[in-house]
Amino acid sequence: MTEQITPLETQKVLDLCSDIGGFTLGHLISGGFETVAFCEINSYCQQVLNLRFPHIPIIPDIHDITTESLLRVGVREIDGIIAGLPCPPFSLAGKRLASQDERNLFGEFFRILCEVRSRWAIVENVPGLITAEGSQFFRSILWQLTSLGFDVEWGIVSAASVGAVHLRERVWIIATNSQSARRGTSWSQYTQKRTNAASVGGGDDDDFQRLSHY
């Protein structure tokens, strides 16, 4: 039986691009988190979510998520956002159009982050995100997060490293709110300190990179 690790305060979470609820299932195992709303456009995934989590509302389209739409489904407070944003714009198996791909939802993610003003966010995607558009796309993600006042950590973790039988490497971005004076700071100050996005990760699960005020 899995022993739950529960923080002092339960965190209310908005689950974006939820698929069939893997993040929220993890919350049930770990404890300490409560998913207050899903966002998932696929009808089959919606059926699975409704079956597994009938008490959690679903907003189908990420473009429709606002503080007003969340209030309409009873969500008044959000501590954190988790997002498994679409991978095809960045996958090595595709055309890697990144910012030019209509499936790229990072713009919507940042819009929502600004609107709900969560204290933290976690984003999961394919490792190709790091090198898309010559790494400039990933740099822009880090810069936008830091300019919003977040400290950011990122790294590549494989499913095999946590007990799965397949490799399935994914890049994880963890942003935690900071009240530092970093807002408005030039990106060049960060590129001098372990922020070469083209070489980040390298498959070492313990080598998470970090951007923070120093």
Blueprint (SSEs and pairs):
Layout: E1 11-16, H1 22-30, E2 33-39, H2 43-52, E3 58-59, H3 67-72, E4 80-83, H4 106-116, E5 120-125, H5 128-131, H6 136-147, E6 150-158, E7 169-177, H7 188-191, E8 209-211
Parallel strand pairs: 1-2, 1-4, 2-3, 4-5
Antiparallel strand pairs: 5-7, 6-7, 6-8
Rounded to an integer, what's the Rg over CA atoms? 17 Å
Largest beta sheet: strand ordering: 3-2-1-4-5-7-6-8
CATH topology assignment: Rossmann fold
Number of helices: 7
Number of strands: 8
Please tell me the overall pLDDT. 81
The percent range for helix content is 25-40%
Order of helices and strands: EHEHEHEHEHHEEHE
Structural class category = alpha/beta
Low-confidence stretches: 1-6, 180-205
CATH class: Alpha Beta
How many individual domains?
1
Account of the protein in words:
This protein is an alpha/beta fold and 214 residues long. The protein has a single domain (11-203), classed as Rossmann fold. Helix content is 26%, strand content 21%. It is built from seven helices and eight strands; from the N terminus they run βαβαβαβαβααββαβ. The chain has helices at 22-30, 43-52, 67-72, 106-116, 128-131, 136-147, 188-191, and strands at residues 11-16, 33-39, 58-59, 80-83, 120-125, 150-158, 169-177, 209-211. An eight-stranded mixed beta sheet has the order 3-2-1-4-5-7-6-8, sandwiched between helices. α1 (22-30) links the parallel β1 (11-16) and β2. Mean pLDDT is 81; it is low at 1-6 and 180-205.
Summary?
With 214 residues, this protein is of the alpha/beta class.
